[in-house]
Task: structure prediction
Amino acid sequence: MPSQPSKLLETFENPQPERDYTIRIRTPEFTCLCPKTGQPDFAEMTIEYIADRLCVELKSLKLYIWSYRDEGAFHEAVTNQILDDVVAAIKPRFMRITADFNVRGGIYTTVVVEHKAEDWQLPEFVQLP
Result:
């Protein structure tokens, strides 16, 4: 059992690469440090993506998220870095990360970042009754 965080993101082959489907991962215990005060910042992070050929392996993602626990980072910077790293690992058709940070100094922060592959078209939304 790993006892250390890791920046290594492992992948596996998408079992249905011909289909656009959404993978939604919730990480309610994201923690990093405020780069100004060193105090902990807590967030619920949601990673949503439409895979192309690869998917991110969840245990490696857990260790990757853990790796931020002792790092100082602004909310905007850490959310964009996570997007960049996961996109580099799996090259999805689409990815959105929403980071809902807990209150700090009376202010809530939500950061939403997206990636869209150049050749991918958003499917038409179907509204069910």
